[in-house]
Design a protein that fits this description.
The protein is mainly beta. The chain has one helix and eight strands. A five-stranded mixed β-barrel has the order 1-4-3-5-7. The longest helix is centred in the last third of the chain and has 6 residues. It is globular and about 45 Å long. The termini are far apart. The model has no long low-confidence stretch (mean pLDDT about 90).
């Protein structure tokens, strides 16, 4: 039996202050602890601060964190309704703090040495 997923596309949320100057890595975004919204989908929003050791681990699995273990900022929304899903994480660049779903913790800002948060 096949499963069909209906996807609606639109303009993605832009978290970058300067979209021509950033570095992003491909990762697999973990679905652990992500709660489904009213529509039943589990969405990890763009601008979520992630970590999990993906910079030093070959598995490239990113988990939602906002602390001293932070390694990057999720570039686009990722739908993890059906399990871990591919995404991109900014590890170097300028991020607009007004576009983030949650303010970065002071320890996360310190850990993200190559990311500058701009108001």
């Amino acid at each position: 039996m096949s499963k069909f997923v209906k996807t609606q596309y639109g303009t993605p949320k832009q978290i970058l202050k300067f979209p021509d100057h950033y570095v992003a890595l491909a990762v697999t975004v973990d679905n652990t602890g992500i709660v489904a919204g009213a529509d039943g989908k589990k969405i990890v929003p763009a601008g979520t601060i992630v970590g999990g050791g993906f910079l030093s681990d070959d598995t490239k699995k990113a988990t939602v964190v906002n602390d001293a273990t932070s390694e990057g900022v999720l570039l686009n929304d990722v739908d993890v309704s059906h399990g871990p899903a591919p995404g991109a994480v900014v590890i170097h660049g300028f991020i607009s703090t007004s576009k983030l779903p949650a303010a970065p913790a002071a320890t996360a800002i310190t850990a993200l040495k190559q990311i500058t948060f701009v108001k």
